[in-house]
Amino acid sequence: MSRLYRFFDKIEQLGVDMAIIYNVESSSRPSTYYLSGFTGSFSVLVLNRDKQFIITDSRYFEQAKQQTKFQLIEYRNGDLFNSIKAVVEEFKPKTIGLEFQRISHNVFLKINEKIKADFLPLDSVIESMRSVKEPEEIENIKRAISISEKAFLKTIEFIKEGVTEREVAAEFEYNMKKLGADGIAFETIVISGPRTSLPHGRPSSKRINRGEPITFDFGAVVNGYCADITRTVFFGKPDDEFKKIYDTVYEAQTIALNGGSANMKGKDVDALARSHIHQKGYGQYFGHGLGHGIGLEVHESPRVNSSNVELLPESAVVTIEPGIYVEGKYGVRIEEDVLVKKDFFERLTTLPREMMTI
Ligand SMILES: [Mn+2]
Q: Which of 261, 237, 257, 259 is nearest to 249 (CA)?
């Protein structure tokens, strides 16, 4: 419950009397889970320090009782917004906090029409809380990483000349689930040859041939927590240019892994890797940010990119993923997951970062 008390402290400081977390066809499931423990796809949390309610429908009555201590309000039929209104009226709020970034404009208009109050955004409150991981959250991320890494090692054994990217991706996801993943954090990327220059290319029916690089970007989910790892391996013998690009990405990552800590702003960690890639002449081929937080979502706060002027919080978990993508040739990305400590980054990923050939 201490997490909830911290949440109430923060919203009270903003002058917010209560919060509505609207998780119906919205992207509020992570915050719903974070605050209440409920994992279903249809719920509305109505809460403040005095009272905590969860509104859900008959698909989830039993599950809600098992997963959360919030008082269950059974929604059966009629206008959901009338049900929300009835619950909110018990609080007599002047100011209500909402996740502005996660509800649609339409939902906001309906809530605003039914309920007479002022509305304030709570997105940054919840995101900043979620960016600082509790020990149990770190354990879940470590388990997700471990399953992902084992699945990677198993999947590369499966690769032979002529297998398609899609077949390898399917095998990879099967392996993660068989090794105990609750799910996958995102659609697994397996791309090969010139397609590796697409930073987020999707697995296709292209066959994988000897003499090509292969990029894998993958992550298991354990108890809601995501891993996010990338490796580029070479099938056969790489040429000198590929080696040079790989070395450059590897060195840039090493500099960021060794230099990063909670004493640094997101943008300054990004600059550590970026300036090295720039010096080697590949600056124009590294277009994305260096990394991002992972947790209940695969991309969350804090960002490790040139626009984050905040210090990285201690106990955040972030990716460090420099890449170089040369259109028409190939791309290389190496992605590690690290725990932000006061004076250093603790690597959570354990796979070798050095170039692998298979
Ligand atoms: Mn990533």
A: 257
